[in-house]
Amino acid sequence: MMQNVHLAPETDEDDLYSGYNDYNPTYDTEELENDTAFQQAVRTSHGRRPPITAKIPSTAVTRPIATGYGSKTSLASSMGRPMTGAIQDGITRPMTAVRAAGFTKAALRGSAFDPLGQSRGPAPPLEAKNEDSPEEKIRQLEKKVNELVEESCIANSCGDLKLALEKAKDAGRKERVLVRQREQVTTPENINLDLTYSVLFNLASQYSANEMYAEALNTYQVIVKNKMFINAGRLKVNMGNIYLKQRNYSKAIKFYRMALDQIPSVHKEMRIKIMQNIGVTFIKTDRDKMKKAFQKLIAVPLEIDEDDKYISPSDDPHTNLVIEAIKNDHLRQMERERKAMAEKYIMTAAKLIAPVIETSFAVGYDWCVEVVKASQYVELANDLEINKAITYLRQKDFNQAVETLKMFEKKDSRVKSAAATNLSFLYYLENEFAQASSYADLAVNSDRYNPSALTNKGNTVFASGDYEKAAEFYKEALRNDSSCTEALYNIGLTYKRLNRLDEALDCFLKLHAILRNSAQVLYQIANVYELMEDPNQAIEWLMQLISIVPTDSRALSKLGELYDSEGDKSQAFQYYYESYRYFPSNIEVIEWLGAYYIDTQFCEKAIQYFERASLIQPTQVKWQLMVASCFRRSGNYQKALDTYKEIHRKFPENVECLRFLVRLCTDIGLKEVQEYATKLKRLEKMKEIREQRIKSGRDSSGGSRSRREGSAGSDASYVDPLGPQIERPKTAAKKRIDEDDFADEELDDLLPE
């Protein structure tokens, strides 16, 4: 086995790393300067390498074979030159290929192997920094400028705009000093452009934040015009924003478009935002144009004489006669028409532009009021204030409306009457009838010929139950203004309350001639015909009503009721079903439909209606009893029994439910019948005892009352101490039409025009 094992010889164990410094001196480039032949070859063509011939010994012949034991001999080059690291004539050539690893000639001369250079000792100390050098001063100044810019940004974020601006200015001054020092020490190409850009940009931003728009624009111009700043053209967006704040819309649009042109299409989000700014600017341009147009409208001269011309300055009969003659002639009428037309146009224009020319309609109205006050139409300012209160009303801001209207309590009679009319209307809507009546009196006393004030006063009297007096106020309003539809509508309701149906019908027919498509008027006419026991006419007018409002569930159910009273069940079912489809929560309609299916022997279909009724009124046991009854009539006794048990669980004292449980358990033969029968007897006995107690209590109270009446010497019957229940006029804000709807809810008509 050991015959194949060869041990290593022990003769060559002197040095494992020997021979690594041996190389062919031919490749030693450090001694080329002393090589005469090489230098001669460089200077002349003598040293050009000839082509290899057979006379020259090849490398294969002269190259020795190295063994694994470390014995090596030098290799000759193709030119006969010794290889680097080889030893010839006792002279060792340096091995340049391994110099970087620390193998040098000195190692062969007895020096120790030190590839890391540790034998050279510690490194010399660093040179002390010269703080007086120009480079160091520039670095410190640049650091200070950066710190000032950061402090300026932090102050701006904290809301201290003044401090932020001061820091930005200081940074700008120090940055200019820094630039001059750099120009003295280095070339202009070494100037820090990024620092200059950040300083200027921050300064412009702080100017803009402090509303110093001129300085901000100048600073932005410095950045934009400097071609050395890359993409500085985008800052034209900021310049456009400043022009927008200055309301210079044309320049804002110009700079936005210039910025848009310099932004590449890949930045889609930025381009979209700039286009959005352009659109907003165009809108603001329209607002500015609207304001200018309104001011031009105010400035249009009327070219009419003042009213003082028609007031007699003396008691001269001839002059008075002339003034009386021209007071109402065609020229005076034309002047009145022109003035009325101008006021109408101004009021209409103000109503249109006030909500859109400013951030809110209130600010817009205030601007219009100020412009009107400074013009020849100063009396229209009060009307605009009232319209402002009406706008508050439409937005359901009653507190602001009341505050605005109360400012007119000390104005002249016309304005005071208009404001008091609106205040009366507001308090009436809030059910504060005492306040409503007080302001209605103030409105009537300020202007007795104001039909809206008289109508509101009639409404407050109607709410108190004095229908005759309310009718008088409505009649007076109609005498002052025959086109006052609210007064005509309300007087019709008043006549209906007074059971003067013919007069009520006459009022509503007149109103129908004025308001052809008024659903309220059509309903009132149909209701009056119903009260007059003329169902055919009532049906006819209701058919006109549903042609205008086909989804009115109340009108549809009323039609179903009228057809049912006439015996037409199929038509009644059609309209009741339509009413249920539009408003499936009307208990009366649900009850009728359920009863209709029971009458027609379709108890299964009636179940869904009674189940819905039980959901609407869960505390009413009758709907659940009807559901159980439908199951029982349809033959589903098990379902009926389960339903009755559920009802008994919820209403354990319901006698009717226990009776049906006893009957069903008896018919089916259940053992629970005895339990339910016992409970039924106990409940019936308790009910009987309760009724006897009530009866005995009534007998005793009746006897004592008779004795008291006899002692008083009067046999008068008992009088109910409660007076008639007053139902106040209702608003038309409901989805359904009520027969007692009042017309005072029409805001635009109740308020002065």
Q: How does this structure look, described?
A:
The chain has 753 residues and is an all-alpha fold. The protein is 63% helix and 1% strand. The chain is built from 32 helices and 2 strands. The protein has helices spanning 36-43, 59-62, 105-108, 134-157, 161-185, 193-209, 213-225, 236-245, 249-262, 268-298, 317-326, 330-353, 361-373, 380-394, 398-406, 413-429, 433-446, 451-463, 467-480, 485-497, 501-514, 519-531, 535-548, 553-565, 569-582, 587-599, 603-616, 621-633, 637-650, 655-668, 673-712, 747-750, and strands spanning 87-88, 91-92. Helix 15 (398-406) runs antiparallel to helix 16 (413-429) and helix 20 (485-497) runs antiparallel to helix 21 (501-514).
